[in-house]
């Protein structure tokens, strides 16, 4: 029972980084901008977190610096993909390769060294004392509660209960129509492209400061791509994205626990579980009936540059 409890506990913790990066990608895509650079952004966020932790020995200052790196990356990406209107796919891939390369270069002195500060579990009074369930759900670090509860509620309210959210969704669906009613398409896309990159770098920082507690080359190991897949697998619905994140966190936890406790399973198989499951479950939308297909479509103007003169 302890093994199962630990697996479920680490599923929630491990899935937090995936969910955070997926929400960042969701925000960007809702405005019509596809960002395939999550892998590089998470790598930069992770290495920034470990460097800042050693430099300042402050957990929250480290996270603020990670956010600052995300803002800089977001500005560069938004200028390229939104203002200059370069190909969004190529911009994202460039960020992936550049981010991974820079992270591995500047992170070499810190490789394999435990972070001097990291997030500690916080037990929720009364609820954490519930047998089994209390330990799994109510003895996590503070970012877990923010990622799974507070952030999705805020995002859902803003996007589906406010005029601003309607404007952003309009930009993602039909930028020409949004521009015709006075919505600044470029501004909306610029802001949400930057916001998406901030969440991507934060996801990398979360892995170092909340789950792994160390940096190593290849730490992200494809999790940025899994986060992008979560958006598609969740069909642009926050609740499905979160549940998918927990599931893939569980798959990642199986691989970690299996190697930590020397399960009689090849490490190659354990390491590949996450990616095999990602491929398998990405096929799921193909089985959705045509009757419900409209509910599952991506924003109509996704990955489409906006030229006002063409309206």
Automatic annotation (TrEMBL):
<dbReference type="InterPro" id="IPR001851">
    <property type="entry name" value="ABC_transp_permease"/>
</dbReference>
<keyword id="KW-1003">Cell membrane</keyword>
<feature type="transmembrane region" description="Helical">
    <location>
        <begin position="40"/>
        <end position="57"/>
    </location>
</feature>
<keyword id="KW-0812">Transmembrane</keyword>
<protein>
    <submittedName>
        <fullName>ABC transporter permease</fullName>
    </submittedName>
</protein>
<dbReference type="Pfam" id="PF02653">
    <property type="entry name" value="BPD_transp_2"/>
</dbReference>
<feature type="transmembrane region" description="Helical">
    <location>
        <begin position="215"/>
        <end position="233"/>
    </location>
</feature>
<feature type="transmembrane region" description="Helical">
    <location>
        <begin position="6"/>
        <end position="28"/>
    </location>
</feature>
<feature type="transmembrane region" description="Helical">
    <location>
        <begin position="63"/>
        <end position="84"/>
    </location>
</feature>
<feature type="transmembrane region" description="Helical">
    <location>
        <begin position="89"/>
        <end position="107"/>
    </location>
</feature>
<feature type="transmembrane region" description="Helical">
    <location>
        <begin position="268"/>
        <end position="288"/>
    </location>
</feature>
<keyword id="KW-0472">Membrane</keyword>
<feature type="transmembrane region" description="Helical">
    <location>
        <begin position="238"/>
        <end position="256"/>
    </location>
</feature>
<feature type="transmembrane region" description="Helical">
    <location>
        <begin position="142"/>
        <end position="160"/>
    </location>
</feature>
<keyword id="KW-1133">Transmembrane helix</keyword>
<feature type="transmembrane region" description="Helical">
    <location>
        <begin position="190"/>
        <end position="209"/>
    </location>
</feature>
């Amino acid at each position: 029972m302890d093994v199962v409890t630990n697996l479920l506990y680490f599923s929630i913790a491990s899935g937090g980084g995936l969910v955070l990066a997926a929400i960042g990608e969701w925000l960007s895509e809702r405005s019509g901008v596809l960002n395939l650079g999550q892998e590089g952004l998470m790598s930069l966020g992770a290495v920034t977190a470990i460097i800042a932790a050693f430099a300042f020995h402050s957990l929250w200052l480290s996270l603020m610096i990670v956010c600052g790196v995300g803002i800089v990356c977001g500005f560069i990406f938004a200028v390229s993909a939104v203002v200059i209107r370069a190909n969004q796919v190529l911009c994202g891939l460039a960020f992936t390769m550049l981010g991974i390369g820079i992270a591995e270069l500047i992170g070499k002195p810190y490789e394999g060294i435990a972070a001097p500060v990291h997030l500690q579990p916080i037990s929720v009074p009364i609820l954490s004392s519930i047998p089994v369930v209390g330990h799994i759900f109510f003895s996590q670090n503070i970012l877990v509660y923010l990622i799974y509860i507070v952030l999705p509620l805020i995002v859902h309210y803003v996007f589906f209960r406010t005029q601003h959210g309607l404007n952003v969704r309009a930009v993602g669906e039909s930028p020409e129509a949004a521009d015709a009613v006075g919505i600044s398409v470029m501004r909306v896309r610029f802001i949400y492209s930057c916001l998406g990159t901030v969440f991507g770098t934060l996801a990398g920082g979360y892995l170092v400061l909340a789950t792994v507690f160390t940096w190593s080359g290849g730490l992200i190991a494809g999790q940025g791509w899994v986060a992008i897949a979560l958006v598609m697998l969740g069909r642009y619905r926050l609740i499905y994205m979160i549940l998918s994140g927990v599931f893939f966190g569980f798959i990642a936890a199986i691989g970690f626990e299996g190697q930590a406790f020397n399960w009689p399973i090849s490490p190659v198989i354990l390491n590949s579980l996450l990616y095999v499951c990602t491929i398998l479950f990405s096929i799921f939308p193909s089985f959705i009936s045509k009757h419900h297909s409209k509910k599952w479509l991506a924003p109509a103007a996704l990955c489409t540059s906006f030229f006002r003169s063409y309206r």
